[in-house]
Each structure stands twice: as structure tokens, then as C-alpha cells.
């Protein structure tokens, strides 16, 4: 029976391309393995679809139930992120770059986890250690995964090993310009065309309690603010509707990943308080905040201070 190589649920590009890469390595070493994923090919996220198409890779097979299967895990080792019945399946290998999770095994297994930015970086080392050449299309997928997971080297999780792997993989994959590849992926990920404004607002949205005030904060990661120029009025109308439903404030972070800053759109019962939180001045309900990328690490703490939480 084939070993099913599989990444985490709600798969990202690393989970998909690492399953392909490890299955390829295992096959080269004489093991019967195939790439799987916890998604159907048509429901895969737009970024991963773009990467598979660009490098001519076949989408991994859908596997939602692991009962009776032999598995190799990539990009996770938490039972909660695995397919159904993972506990009753036999896990024979784990390759990852996260904290060690709660999967346990009865036999000794191949377990390789490193504190780097992407599973693709670990797999690049494994191919080298094994003396196996990485096929061009597989290298392209691994390259894309590293750029995605490290946000083009800008994430605090990025290491020198990730940069070194990109330098090697781009040659194998025949990619001259990794900036261009990253932008193609980012544009696919942040596509807004045809998506209703309320869906965009709620794509990545959380409500917070600030001293008894309900405050909503949404975020859209964009390649350029031009992507939302045409739907800005619709987005504000959606925000007004959400605010009218018992909220003190609704904020929408329009984050320009390239310029590394956020156009913060604000509707609030106390605009001065929000301006004070970020030391800016609202014009037409928004203000540009240089360097603001993270809701968790930047936006919410500033709001909590301003509300006196
Ligand atoms: Mg992942
Ligand atoms: Mg990853
Ligand atoms: Mg990720």
C-alpha cells in the first residue's frame, strides 16, 4: 500500500508542495508513496492553484479520512490539523517546521523538524542529504512555498537557511525573478474581483471587547492598494452596516504587503480616540500607517492602550 504524504487541513502552498516533494523523494528512494491533501483540487486556495499551474504540477489526491492508511506528515504534527481518524492510522514519517505536536507513534520513525521558515527548506536539505536531484517542477513548487511561508523573506520566521534554499531552488526550477513569482502568488491570494464587499470585510475579521465596547477589525493583504480602489465605497458601506449592529468601531486594515504598511479605514463613535491610538489623522475615514502589518502584534495592542484595557 502506498504511503500517503499529507499536509495540514485547510492546506496552504507549503502543505501541498511539500507533500509532492516528499512523495517524490520517497519514490526516488524506492518507497511507494503518493502526495495527498485535505482538500479537493477545485477547493484549493487561489495561491496554491496558481503555483501548481505555473510549474505544471498535478494536485495531490484528496484524502479526508486516514482510517487504515499509512501516512507521512508534512508541515504539521498536530492531530487536530490532520485528516479524520489520524490516531488509528500508521504514521511513518514527519517533516515539519512547527512546534512538535501531539501525534505519537508505536514504531521509531523518520522525524525531521527544523526551526526554519518553511517545510520546503527542510526538504531541500533532505534531497541533498540523500543525493537525489530535485525534478524541475517539484523545485518550482518548493521555491514558491518558501516565498509564501516567509512572505518573500519579510516574515520574522524567515532564516538564512530559507534564503539559501531559494537561491538553490530558483536555479533548478529555472525561475530568474523570484520577486515576479511572489507577486503572481500575492495577486492570486489577494484577488478581490467579483467578491462581495461584505465577504471581503469578513475574509479575515475578528471582534474584540475593549472595556465593554465591541470593536471589529478586519484585514485584507494586498499587492497594491489599487486592487481595492474601485470597491472602497462598497467596503465602507459594508463596514457601516456591521458597525450599526452594536459596535463602537469597525476598522479595516488594507495592508500593502509590498510597501509594508496599512491604509487603516475607520468608522467609530470616537474618531479622536482611534486617531490617538495610532498617532495619525483620518482623512476621508482613513489613514496610512507605515510599517503596520500585523493585527495581532500592532493594531490590537494600540487599540487596547487607547481604550484603557
Ligand atoms: Mg502551513
Ligand atoms: Mg509551512
Ligand atoms: Mg503558512
UniProtKB/TrEMBL annotation:
SMART domains noted in UniProt: DHHA2 (SM01131)
Pfam families noted in UniProt: DHH, DHHA2
Alphabetical UniProt keywords: Hydrolase, Manganese, Metal-binding
Cofactor(s) the protein needs: Mn(2+)
Protein name (record): inorganic diphosphatase
SUPFAM superfamilies assigned to the protein according to its UniProt record, in alphabetical order: DHH phosphoesterases
The enzyme's E.C. designation: 3.6.1.1
Residues of the DHHA2 domain: 182-307
Matches recorded under InterPro entries: DDH_dom, DHH_sf, DHHA2, DHHA2_dom_sf
Catalytic activity annotation: diphosphate + H2O = 2 phosphate + H(+)
Signal peptide: none
Single GO MF annotation: inorganic diphosphate phosphatase activity
One CC-aspect GO term: cytoplasm
Enzyme class: hydrolase
Amino acid at each position: 500500500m502506498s504511503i500517503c504524504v499529507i499536509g495540514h487541513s485547510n492546506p496552504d502552498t507549503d502543505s501541498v508542495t511539500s507533500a509532492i516533494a516528499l512523495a517524490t523523494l520517497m519514490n526516488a528512494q524506492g518507497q511507494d508513496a503518493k502526495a495527498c491533501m485535505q482538500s479537493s483540487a477545485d477547493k484549493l486556495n487561489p495561491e496554491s492553484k496558481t503555483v501548481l499551474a505555473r510549474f505544471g504540477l498535478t494536485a495531490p489526491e484528496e484524502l479526508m479520512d486516514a482510517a487504515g492508511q499509512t501516512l507521512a506528515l508534512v508541515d504539521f504534527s498536530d492531530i487536530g490539523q490532520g485528516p479524520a481518524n489520524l490516531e488509528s492510522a500508521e504514521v511513518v514519517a514527519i517533516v515539519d517546521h512547527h512546534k512538535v505536536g501531539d501525534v505519537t507513534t508505536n514504531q521509531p520513525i523518520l522525524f525531521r523538524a527544523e526551526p526554519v521558515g518553511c517545510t520546503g527548506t527542510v526538504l531541500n536539505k533532505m534531497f541533498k542529504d540523500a543525493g537525489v536531484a530535485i525534478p524541475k517542477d517539484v523545485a518550482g513548487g518548493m521555491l514558491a512555498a518558501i516565498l509564501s511561508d516567509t512572505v518573500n523573506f519579510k516574515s520574522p520566521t524567515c532564516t538564512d537557511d530559507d534564503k539559501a534554499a531559494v537561491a538553490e531552488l530558483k536555479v533548478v526550477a529555472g525561475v530568474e525573478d523570484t520577486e515576479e513569482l511572489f507577486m503572481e502568488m500575492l495577486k492570486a491570494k489577494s484577488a478581490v474581483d467579483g467578491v462581495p464587499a461584505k465577504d471581503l470585510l469578513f475574509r479575515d475579521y475578528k471582534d474584540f471587547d475593549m472595556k465593554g465596547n465591541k470593536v471589529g477589525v478586519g484585514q485584507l493583504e494586498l499587492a497594491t492598494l489599487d486592487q481595492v480602489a474601485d470597491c472602497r465605497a462598497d467596503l465602507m458601506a459594508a463596514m457601516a452596516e456591521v458597525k450599526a449592529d452594536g459596535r463602537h468601531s469597525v476598522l479595516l486594515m488594507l495592508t500593502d504587503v509590498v510597501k509594508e504598511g496599512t491604509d487603516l479605514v475607520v468608522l467609530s463613535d470616537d474618531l479622536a480616540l482611534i486617531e490617538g491610538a495610532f498617532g495619525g489623522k483620518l482623512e476621508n475615514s482613513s489613514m496610512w500607517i507605515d510599517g503596520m502589518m500585523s493585527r495581532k502584534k500592532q493594531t490590537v495592542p494600540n487599540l487596547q492602550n487607547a481604550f484603557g484595557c
